[in-house]
Amino acid sequence: MHARLISLLALAALPALASAETATPTQPALQNVWTASGFDQPESAIYDRKRHQILLSSMNGGADAANGLGYISVLTEDGDIVKKHWVQGLNAPKGLGVYGDHLYVADLTRVLDIDIPTGKVLHTYDAPEAKFLNDVTVADNGDVYISDLLAQRIYRLHQGALEIWLSSAELNFPNGLWAQRDRLLVAAWGQDLQADFSTRIPGRLKQVQLSDKRISDLIDDQPLGNLDGVTDDGASGLLATDFMRGRLFHFNSLNTAPAEFELPPGSADLDYIPEQKLVLMPLMWKGELAAYRLP
Predict the structure, then answer these.
(1) pLDDT tens for residues 144-153?
(2) CB within 8 Å of 126: residues ≥ 6 apart
(3) 1 CB contacts (<8 Å, ≥6 apart)?
(4) CA gap 167, 219 in Å, rounded
(5) Residue 10's pLDDT band (boundaries 50, 70, 90)?
């Protein structure tokens, strides 16, 4: 399948995927606080709380291109670009995870450990049998988890060693990851992946127990879309994005239907600053990073 993988950029020409099972937008538009532009297929944003700055990965080419053109940018909390090409020479970089002074990057088939104060790559970990590394999350104990969408796999970086932690078709082509206490939350792309990267069945939110690696649906009987990013809202809720249709889902409670907000298609791997109620949203197909305030 990897040989037939098309660039995610080509998906802009596809009609937006919809499903009778997915929710319809019922909420007012989000408040756009600021927008930073001029990026090249921005994929993942993360808030570096220690330094009060935003880090943003840009693929700068095909989603599976090992072209050395990808980069990471630094922005202020207000969306001003501090340094567009802070770290360069990457291969379609996607997910980001911050732990202390370390930035972990999913760089196609390898994981980079970058020293944030200096911007230098401290370690490069080659992921065994990797096809398409996607998102990164860091658990409270410092273990780093990385999804591989095409291999239906989750890796773990533990005590300086990168290992295959879980492989299962039950992951439904895992995209976004979020470590939450004793579990991993997984934003699944969907089931029955086609050569054009569409799916016959939309993706769901899933959870994996860290203790025994048990996989289950986080919300029963609720496929949402081709999910990309997932994070918590700083309280008891969750946020997730539908990349293909351009949607933000906000679950205040897992027992109720989510609030759904319309966004541009290509809305990718988000982060959230709860103190400001601010969603950091890479808009891949527009080359922008937008900040939206939740109502």
Answers:
(1) 999 999 999 9
(2) 109, 110, 162
(3) 150, 193, 195
(4) 21
(5) very low
d(CA 71, CA 60): 8
> Would strands 161-167 and 153-158 be described as parallel, antiparallel, or unpaired?
antiparallel
CA distance 270 to 264: 13
Amino acid at 3: A
Q: Which residues in 248-284 are b (16+ Cβ under 10 Å) and which e?
A: bbbbeeeeeebbbbebebbbbbbbbbeeeebbbbbbb
One-character DSSP codes across 211-224: TT--EEESSTT---
The domains located in the chain, with CATH, are: 40-230 (2.120.10.30)
- Categorize the per-residue pLDDT at 27 as very low, low, confident or very high, splitting at 50, 70 and 90: low
Contact 245/18 with Cβ under 8 angstroms? yes
110: left (phi over 0), alpha (psi -120 to 50) or beta: beta
Mean model confidence pLDDT for the chain: 91
The per-residue DSSP string of 32-90 comes to: EEEEEE--SSEEEEEEETTTTEEEEEE--S-TT---S-EEEEEEETTS-EEEEEEEEEE
User: Cβ neighbours of residue 192 under 8 Å, at least 6 residues apart?
Assistant: 199, 200, 201
**The model's pTM:** 0.90
What is the C-alpha separation between 229 and 71, in angstroms, rounded? 19
> What are the structure tokens assigned to 127, written together?
């992921």
Residues 6+ apart with CB under 8 A from 238: 178, 185, 205, 230, 231, 232, 249, 250, 251, 254
Using CA atoms, how far apart are residues 59 and 213, in angstroms rounded to an integer? 31
Q: Do 68 and 61 meet the contact criterion of CB atoms below 8 Å apart?
A: no
Q: Is the dihedral of CA 119, 121, 127, 132 positive or negative?
A: positive
Assess whether pLDDT exceeds 90 at residue 239: yes
